[in-house]
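Structure tokens please, single chain.
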Amino acid sequence: MNRLIWGLGLALFVSAQSLTGAPVHEHQGRAIGLEYAHDLSSDHTQHSQLFYQEKHVWSLTPDASAARFHLQYRLIIDTEDAQTYEKPGASNVEKLIAFVEKPWGDFKLNLGWQEMSWGENLLLPILDVVNPRDVGYLRGFYDPGAKQSSPMILGEWKSGVLDAQLIAVPWAVKSRQPEAIGDFKIADERRYELGSDSEYGGRLGLFLAGVDSRLYYFRHHPREPSYRFQAFSGETDVILDEEMVTTSGLSLSYAGAAWLVRTDLAWHQNFPATALAADVERTNLAQSIVGLNYTSEDGLQTLGVELHNDLWETLPEAYSKGPWTETERDQTFLTWMALTANLSFFQALIEPQIFYLQGLDNSDRMLRLILSSHVNDSISVGSEYQKTEAATTSPKLLLNNKETLALRCTYAF
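Here you go.
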């Protein structure tokens, strides 16, 4: 399956090269940079990367109905990952987007490696389940930057106040996993198969009276990391729990002059409710997020507050009596509050961002501080600090007990 998927990516890339002489090159962006991330909790370097990234859109003619080819990728060399410089290959490629887009009036068909964003892009999204995720990502697997592109067929239709999407992922992609979870090595037991492991779903939207409402449905592999001990391994190796999950939901948003109200509602069926166990418990889970944002008149300062709720159909035993829990609890309803701030000063010279999540009836806590600076049109530098204190009562932060510091410098040309 992997060979077939990579073959598709290669074919799309070759197609892009054949279009380089086309008369229309709609967009082009390139950047090179350095990124360093250190795990403060274990005092080791998480990654130290030199990266190059670019994005292009080609079309054969200026006509709006002409086919377009989108190509975006990031190439890395990581001193903490010997494979990226000793055996260059797929491990050097990140954030690959490569797809053909063909419009026909109100309808558009996309074919290739793509990323989708579902829901209202709140702090810990609950509806954004189309793409697999990098479990070991610096900011945690729930962050949008943790998404991995998938080879998908996407049909989009828009007419007046209505819009719709249909998505099929025939050859599903596994979430990128670290080599180990704590002291447990991850054993990759099987490959995804066409048909039984295919992912599919859709979205239906309506914009009426200033309210943007959307319904969602997607059948997919778990986006939450969940593992069980491999048979006969003596509890030294774990394997991924990959039984399919069905997610359905609703998102709503309403924007005023300075205020934005957003909400996501999700219902996950057959949800993996344990992170690491001999047998993975599965149950149904309802989640909701309600957010309120205020943006200043000049558009430079945005403050937000969010209320997150999880309601388990049955409480997973591992969360109430498991060895990882701090105290015994019998809660099926859990609540968190998040505060966010996106600020900009001195014409974007300094741009701090603050994110804070606190459990109201549990001990989860996450603090993220980001400081970015655009020195000029080409050079930007930034730093980021994140500390997560996670309890097993929360599926949001499982396996993300960490304290990290990251530094980056980017030159765009």
